[in-house]
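User: My collaborator sent over this chain with a note saying "see what the structure looks like." That's all I know about it. Can you take a look?
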Amino acid sequence: MISLELAIRATEMLLAFAFLLQSIEHIRAPKNEQVLFIPRIALSLLLLIGFQTAWVCLALFLIALLMLHRFQGPYNGGSDRMSLLVLSCLTLTHFMPTEQGREIIFGYLGLQLVLSYFISGWVKIVNPDWRSGLALQDVFRFSAYPVSDSLRGWADRPQILFAASWAVILFELIFPLSLITQPTLIFGLTIAAAFHFSNACFFGLNRFFWIWLSAYPSILWLQGRVFGHIGLFS
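Assistant: Without extra context I'll predict from the sequence alone. Here is the result:
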């Protein structure tokens, strides 16, 4: 079972790395963006090496609020919302006065990660375009996401995209069952990470890969804390 302290530290390091990659993109941005992202780079480096992590997280959270104001919301969609969720939970975990409070906040992050997969699968399965594979065909044929024109040829392979659609749907829906044992959870997270990595390769959605990975320690800890504590699984 992974300890709470180790899980928090792993989350800090992964989040810091994700923030570094996000922020480097803005080094040559207009000055009103540089004043946000250059300090964010410096703070991310401090978080990565473990210097005054509680106060560094708080400073990063304040910058995140300024970013929301500057861009009128999470400008990069789901990855920015997950970034804010991980950072908020991590910051609150550091400032909780009791161990129980720290566990509740950090466990909430793990629960939200589980829900992020399950709800995504539910949204897809009630959508007839996803059930038929048409949604993926449209992504490859019409969207700006594919990183190369050659990938658009996959839109002409409906049977493959039909199978891929259902593979994604079923995996996301059954992901909560991976919590039953630590080996099944590790297997589920490996598949999930491979899914995010493939999206980064096919569609350039690299932000999703790193920020979702930063939440994985929380669910690894939560699995051990819940099932290990009640002694059902080892």
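A starting point for your reply to your collaborator: The radius of gyration is 19 Å.
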